[in-house]
Structures are given as C-alpha cells and as structure tokens.
Amino acid sequence: MTEILDDQEKHTPLDALLDAVPRGVMRHWLTLLLLAIAALGALTFFIRFVTGDNTPYYSAPVERGDLVPRVSERGLVRGSGEVAVTAAVGGRVTWITGKSDGDVAKGEILAVLEAGQVASAVAIGRSRVAAARASLEAAQVTAQDAASRLDRFESVWKRSNGRAPALDELEGARVGVRRAALGVEVAQAEVRAAKVQLKDQQTRLASAAVRAPIAGTLVMRQIQLGQTVAENQPLFTIAAGIAPLTIEVPLTAGPGAPIRRGAQAQLRFDALPDVPQSARLTLLRAIPLRTVFTLENPDPRIRPGMAATVEVDLPERRNVLLVPDAALAFEPVDRQEGRQGPRRERIYVLEHGDPRRVYVTVGGSDGKRSEVFANDLEPGDQVIIGWRDVRSGTARSRR
Q1: Is there a contact between 91 and 116 (Cβ–Cβ < 8 Å)?
Q2: DSSP, residue by residue, 342-377
Q3: Which of 78, 216, 380, 392 is the most exposed place for a label (fewest CB within 10 A)?
Q4: At a CB cut-off of 8 Å and minimum separation 6, what does 32 contact?
Q5: 105 backbone dihedrals φ, ψ, rounded to 5°
C-alpha cells in the first residue's frame, strides 16, 4: 500500500502536463468513453425503432441549381446507298445465310423460300403452253386443208372456163382460207402469251432463292429460319458503301432544351463497349421527329448494322427547379389502381405528412434529376420519391 502511494506521489502536475501519466489510467478513461458512446447509440436506435417515422414516404427536397440535360436512344449504324432486299414470292424460309453482318457479293444467295404455289403455277404454265401449241398445230392443219380446197376449186374453174364450180362455192372456199389463217394467228398469239406467262412464273420460282442485288455490306437480317414471309416483305438490308456512317434515332428533348443541328453526341457500341465514338447531328426531321447523326473519324472496326446507344448533352440550364426523376414516377397506390390512358406529368409534395399533387411541365434530365416548371413549387419543398413500405401505402389508400 505504501508503494502505491509513493508511486502516485512521484507524478507531479508537470508530469501530467507532459503526458507522463501512467498508461493504465488513460486506457481506463478511454474505455469508459467508448462504452458511453456505444450506449448512447444503442439508445438512439431503440427510440427510433419504438417510435418509428411518422410518414410512410421517402422524400427529397426540391432544389434550384444548374443542369446539363442528357438524352439517349438506341439505334443501328447505317452505311451509304442502302438497298432493301424484299421477297419476290411468299413462302416459308427453308434456308438462310449464317451471316448477320459482313460483306456480301452480288448474286450471293442469302435465303431460300419454299414457294409451293409458284411451283404449281409453273407446272400449270407448262401445260398451257403445250395446249396452245396443240391448238396452233390444229389451226395450221385447218389452214392447209382450206388452202388445198381453194386450189382445187380454182383449178376446176379454169379448166371449165368458169362453168364449175359455182361462184358461191368458190367464194366460200376463199372465205374459209381467210378464216383458217386468222385461226392460225390466234393460236400463235395464245402460244406466245402462254410462253410469256410461263417465263414469268419460272422467274418468280427462281427468285425463291433470294440473292444479293448488289455487292456491299449486310446491314440487317429481318427474317429467321422457318418463318413464313409474304410477297414484297423486307428480308435484308445491304449497304453499297460504308462511309459516311450514320445512325438515326427518335431523340426528343424537353421544352427548355431543344435539339439543334450540329449538336455533338457520344455513341456507345454494344460490340465495342470500351470504344466510345463521337458523332454530330447532321439531319433533323420534324414529322416524325427523327435525328440523323454522322460519325466523326469512326473506328475501323465499326460496321453498318452495329447497335449503339446515342447520348447527347444539351446546353446547360442555369438556376432551374430540379427534382429527382423518382418523383416523376411516384404515384399513390389508390391513384395507380384507377389510372387509365395517358398520364399528365405530376409530382407529390409532402404537406403536414400528406401528399399534395402538383402538375408540372418537365424539361431536360441528366438521368438522375429533371428540370420542372410549376407555379406552386418552391426550393426546399419535400417531394415524394417512393414508399417506405408499400403495404402501409395500400392500407392508407383504403381508409
């Protein structure tokens, strides 16, 4: 006991100032401090668990700030001089090329159709040609017989010095020759018509083998093996050339952030996710709204037909009202069940724990926040972005 007192007396106030207090005393006080913090935290969580939150909604404040709107859309890269290959006949696809893209040669077979009806038409056409030829031969025989009969009549007429045969018989023979000649001409015309029809059907049957009309790059394949296609249905798209490469997408923007010609865009390709490409808006169509972007210095690996996402940063919007995109998607449960048809843009603001509907006009968005225009909305208002518990929202709507 005397040794402990002596040890404590050896430490003067100067020792404490110089942090010369024994380490065991410091650890003791540090341990007590940590225990106090842990107890306070546990008490806070317990109170929060018992009392809970007085609102079933998650909310976020309306902000006023700057926004760089971004719009994006999916599309396919196109080459120059695109040609659509259509089905000349209807039928089931019995064979199709394994190429989904890449180069094709002129005349290369891309697909084969089972054109049963056309094949039957060809067989019928051959029969018609044979029947027309038989009719022509019969007409020719009739014409020869009529000509021989007329020759005999005229020979007898000359030898009898016009006494026989009678003039009526001679004239009838002459009419028979002319009638037989016309019959030959009709039969010949029927043969020609039957041949033309047969040739047309044979051409249609040959077109059951779908061939590339030009040499180029296969951009799109629009059919699958076993599919039944109709006549004139598009089957493939072939680009005669590559440069310039373009992509057409239906991009739209809010009223405060219009898209203008010359806007820069970034393309992200599914096949080349690590190779973003730049493009410029070169064509803007109003009805329907379509935008065409031309790639600038495209990577050599990019080919027509590749799928890509077009992302466009629009001019910055300054000092505008901003809400989370989730606020525009939120809808109370009772209104979700009764909603039909187009939905007018709206958000819900918390007032005394209850939602208040505010109609808004939506401007641009950067994918997380959106610019909104509304008369009854101020910065700092709490907008609802979701339910803490959907079941509580359902119960609330049934009260």
Answers
A1: yes
A2: ----EEEEEETTEEEEEE-EEEEE-SSEEEEE-SS-
A3: 380
A4: none
A5: -95, 155
Among the ranges 19-23, 38-42, 306-310, which has the highest mean pLDDT value? 306-310
User: Using CA atoms, how far apart are residues 208 and 116, in angstroms rounded to an integer?
Assistant: 10
Q: Long-range contact list for 116-120, CB < 8 A, 24+ apart?
A: 116/91, 117/89, 117/90, 117/91, 118/89, 118/91, 118/201, 118/204, 118/205, 118/208, 119/205
**Residue 135 φ/ψ region, left for φ over 0, alpha for ψ in the -120 to 50 degree band, beta for the rest:** alpha
Strand 216-221 with 234-249, pairing? antiparallel
Instruction: Read off the DSSP letter of residue 29.
Output: H
Closest CA to 208 of 119, 121, 120, 115: 115
CA 357 – CA 43 distance, rounded (Å) = 37
With a CB cutoff of 8 Å and minimum separation 6, the contacts of 207 are 88, 89
Residues 6+ apart with CB under 8 A from 215: 103, 104, 105, 106, 240
Query: Do residues 335 and 275 make contact, with C-beta atoms less than 8 angstroms apart?
Result: no
- Which DSSP letter does residue 203 get? H
Q: What's the distance, Cα to Cα, between the start and end of the chain in Å? A: 75
Share of the chain above pLDDT 90, in %: 29
Question: Per-residue DSSP letters for 286-338?
Answer: TTTTEEEEEESS--TT--TT-EEEEEEEPPPEEEEEEEEHHHHH---HHHHHH
pTM across the whole model = 0.50
321 — phi, psi (to 5°)?
A: -75, 135
pLDDT, residue 2, reads 42
Distance, in Å, from the CA atom of 260 to the CA atom of 291, rounded to the nearest integer, reads 10
Mean pLDDT for 61-71 is 90
